[in-house]
Specification:
The protein is mostly helical. The chain is 74% helix and 0% strand. Helix 1 packs across helix 6 and helix 5 runs antiparallel to helix 7. The relative contact order is 0.12.
Length: 188
C-alpha cells in the first residue's frame, strides 16, 4: 500500500503540483481513507522527501558505477553520466519532474539531507573532470566547479523539455551534449 500511495502521489504531484494536491486527493485516487495515508506517512511533506530520497539515491548509485569504472575514458564517462539523466527521465517520468520541480516545498531539515546528496552528485562530476585533467584528457585550465555546474544545468533542465517519444532518443541527445561540452560550439 505504501508503494501505491507513493505512485499515485507522484502522478498527482506531476499533474497538479505539490501544493495543489491534498492528502484527500491522494487517498481518493486509491480508494482508501486518510488513516491509511497516516499509517505510512506523518505528512505530505514526508512523502515528498521519500520520493526525493529514492530518486537521488538511485541516481547516485548509477552515477558512481559509471565514474568509478577504471576501464572507461573520460569521454565515455561524460556521455554515460549525461545519458543517465535522460534515461532516468524516460524511465521515471513523473517522478523525475517531481524531483526537479517540487524540491522547494521541502522543509529546511528535509532539504539539508537532499542537498547533501545533490552536492555529492555534483562532486562526483567534479571528481570525474579532475581525473580527466590529471590523465591529460582535458584542459588543465578548466574551472572544474563551473564546468560541473554547466553540465548539471544541461542535464537538470532536460526534464522540462525532453520527450522520450520525440525525434531524438536519449543517446542522440547525450551525444550532442557530450560534444558540446568537450568541443564547445566555437567554429575553430
Amino acid at each position: 500500500m505504501k508503494q501505491k500511495i507513493k505512485e499515485h502521489s507522484i502522478q498527482l504531484f506531476d499533474k497538479k503540483g505539490f501544493t495543489s494536491t491534498s492528502i484527500q486527493d491522494i487517498v481518493e485516487s486509491i480508494g482508501v481513507t486518510k488513516g491509511t495515508f497516516y499509517y505510512y506517512y506523518t505528512s505530505k511533506e514526508e512523502l515528498l522527501k521519500e520520493i526525493h530520497l529514492r530518486f537521488i539515491d538511485d541516481l547516485l548509485n548509477e552515477q558512481e558505477k559509471i565514474i568509478n569504472d577504471e576501464e572507461k575514458t573520460i569521454q565515455d564517462k561524460l556521455f554515460e553520466v549525461i545519458c543517465l539523466a535522460l534515461v532516468d527521465i524516460k524511465k521515471q517520468g513523473a517522478s523525475a519532474k517531481v524531483f526537479y520541480r517540487e524540491m522547494r516545498h521541502l522543509s529546511p531539515e528535509s532539504l539539508t539531507e537532499i542537498k547533501e546528496k545533490r552536492d555529492l552528485y555534483r562532486f562526483n562530476i567534479e571528481k570525474m573532470l579532475y581525473e580527466g585533467i590529471q590523465k591529460g584528457d582535458l584542459r588543465s585550465d578548466l574551472d572544474v566547479p563551473i564546468v560541473s555546474f554547466g553540465i548539471l544545468g544541461i542535464m537538470n533542465w532536460s526534464y522540462e523539455w525532453y520527450n522520450p517519444e520525440g525525434s531524438k532518443n536519449e543517446y542522440q541527445i547525450a551525444k550532442a551534449f557530450q560534444e558540446m561540452v568537450l568541443k564547445g560550439i566555437d567554429r575553430k
